[in-house]
Amino acid sequence: MLQQWNNILLHLRTNKITWLFIIAAVLLFTGIGSTPMYILDEARNAQAAREMMERNDWIVPTFNGELRAHKPPLHYYFMQLAYRTFGVNAFAARFFSAVFGWLTLWITWYFTRRFVSYGTAIWTVAVLLVSTHFLFEFRMSVPDPYLIFFITAGILCFYAYAQERKLKWLICSAVAAALATLAKGPVALALPGAVLVWWALSQKKYDLLFSWKMGLYVAVIAMVALPWYVIVHQATKGEFTRIFFFEHNFNRFGEPMEGHGGLFIMVPLFVLLGLLPVSVFTGELVKKVRSFHTNAFVRLSMYVTIVFIVFFSVSGTKLPNYPMPCYPFVAILLGYFINKVITGQNQVKQYPLWLLLALNVLLLAAGFVGLGLETATQPFRGWALLFIIPVITAAASWWYFKKEGLKKAMHVIIGGYSVFNLLFLAIGYPAVYKHNPVTKTLPLIPANEQVYSYKIYNAAYNFYLDKPIQMLDDAAAVNRLLTANPHAIIISRESHLPDLESVPYKLVAKERDLFETASTVLISGK
C-alpha cells in the first residue's frame, strides 16, 4: 500500500497534465450549487427539466406548463439524471455541465497530444483552464456545455478518421454530431459541416467527401437525432417545429432578438475577451499564422475559428456564448503558438502582458464601480478587491517574462488565475448573487397557495416554488383576482404598475433586479 502511494505521489510530481485536470475539476465543481438560480436561461432550463421528469415525459419540453420550444432536449435528459441522483437543486441542475466542461478539456488535450505534440496539448488545456468565461459557462444549467463538447468531439473524431481511416472514429464523429444537434439544433450540423468540407478540400482529401462512408455518416446522424424531432413534431402538432426552427433559428439569424444585436466586430471581441488572459497573445499569433498551415490539425482549428466567428458576426442576434464552440480550437492555436515560443521556434514581444495588466486594472475599477452603483450590492463592494489578484498576476507575469521568459510567465498566469477563478466563481459571485430579488422575496410568498404574475416574472420563482405560476394579462384580470382573494400574491415589474392605477392593490415588496434597470415587485389586495 505504501509503495502504491509513493507511486501516485511520484506520478503527481512528474506529470503536469494530471495536475491541470485536478485543478480543472476543482474549478468546475467547487460551489456550483452555491449560486442561487436567478439568471433567466438557467432557471427556465432547470425548471423545464424538472417538469419533464415529473410528467415522465421524454419528448415534449415545457416551462410553467406550456410548450418550451427554445431548445432540443439533450440537456434536459442529463439534468433529469442528476435530479434523480442528487435531488432537485441548483447543484444537480449544473452537475453535468461541469462534467462536460472537464470532458471538453480532456478530449481537446487527447487529440492535440495525439496529432500535434504533448507540449501543445498542455498549453491548450492551460488556455481554457484560466479562461473565466469558459469556466463560468460550464458551471451553468444551459445547453451550451453539451453543445460545445459534442461539436468539439465531432470535429476532432472526424479528423482522426481522416488521418487513420478507422471506422470507429467516423461513427464516434457522427454520434457526437447527432447529439450536438439534440443539444442546440441545425446550427450544430451546419457549421461543423462547413468546416470539415472546407478543410477536406484544402487538404485535397476528396475521397473523404465522395465515399460511401459519408452515406453511413449521414445515416448514423439521422438515426440518432431525427427520431426525437419527428416525434415532438407529431406530439405538438407541428408547433415545436414551427417555433423552434423559424423563430429560434432563422429569425435569430436574420434579425436581433430580445435586444441582442450589434456590430460585426462584437463577436471577435466576445472571443478575445472570453479567452482572457491568454488571448492577449492573439496579435503575436496572427503575425505567425502563415506557418500554422503546415500542420493539418492546427489548420483545421483555424478553419473552425474563422467559420464560427464569421457566421455569428453576420447573424442578427449576437450573444457572448454563441461563438463558444470555437473556444477549444482557438485554445489549440494559442497553445501551438506558446509551445513554439517556449521551444525556441518563435519569439514573442512583451506588449501583450502590458495589455493584460491594463485590462485587469480596468476590470478592477469596473467591478468596484459596478458593485457600488447597484443598491443591493453596495455592502459587498469589497468583493471587487478580488480583481486585485489578476492585476498582481499580470504584473508578476511581466516581471518573470523579462527575467526568465514566457514559460515562467505562463506558470504565473496559470497559478494566479486559478486562484482568482476559484475565489470569484465559487465564493465571490455566489455571495453577490444571493442578494437577488427572487431570493429576497421568496419568504413573502405562501408555500401552499397559488401564485400569480402580471405580464412578466423571473423564471426562478418556478424553480424554488415548484409549482406553476398563473399569468394575468390585463388589469381587469388582476382586479377580479384581488377582489375575490385579497391575500393573493402577484409578481410583476415596477414598470407595469401604472397599468394598475384603477386596481386597489398593496405593494408587498420591491427589489431592484441585480445589474439591471428593472425592479421586481410583489403586490396583493388591500
From TrEMBL:
Topology in the lipid bilayer: Multi-pass membrane protein
UniProt entry keywords in alphabetical sequence: Cell membrane, Glycosyltransferase, Membrane, Transferase, Transmembrane, Transmembrane helix
Principal cellular location given in the protein's record: membrane
Domain ArnT-like N-terminal: 46-234
Localization of this protein: Cell membrane
Pfam families: PMT
Transmembrane spans: 20-40, 86-109, 115-136, 145-162, 174-202, 214-232, 263-285, 297-316, 322-339, 351-371, 383-401, 413-433
Entries under InterPro entries matching the protein: ArnT-like_N, LipidA_mod_glycosyltrf_83
Protein name from the UniProt record: Glycosyltransferase family 39 protein
Source organism of the structure: Niastella soli
Organism lineage: Bacteria, Pseudomonadati, Bacteroidota, Chitinophagia, Chitinophagales
